[in-house]
Predict the structure.
Amino acid sequence: MRRGRYLFWLLPGLLWAQNAQLLECNKIFEERKQELELKLDEIDEARQAYEALKNATEAMFRKKEAFLAKKERELNATRAEIEKQKAALEALVAKNEKILQAIKEAKAGNVSRTYAKMKASAAAEILAQMPSADAAQILSTLKPKTVGQILAKMDPKKASEITLLLEGKASKE
């Protein structure tokens, strides 16, 4: 019976202590809950700031990509125009070279015909006054018989220089 009595007196004290302990735990949990809610708000604000920064960065990146794509198209158009102009210039240069070559051939033909019609002694005298390379170039357009007659009328030293140049031209062709 004594035990029952003590339990009777202890039971309310135990219940009160347990209730106080529960109240204490609830208070701690409420404080902790408020701390966690504050942290959660901070995390949410940081997430929102991150999302805003991410969206701004992506928008800036898309804008830069569009700008670069536009510049690339402009560069490609410019490059195509340059290539077109280059091709036109190359065609013009080739045409001019053909015209120049035709003029040189006509001129050489006229000079050749002029020297072919001259007397050998007069042609030898004129060619002897020229640089040997130029004289050899003129003589290379004449018939071998005419060249022989002109060289025979020249100073032997000058004739040998021209002959060596003619041999060099003949071996190159």
Observations:
- The helical segments are 2-117, 120-129, 132-139, 144-152, 156-172.
- The mean pLDDT is 84.
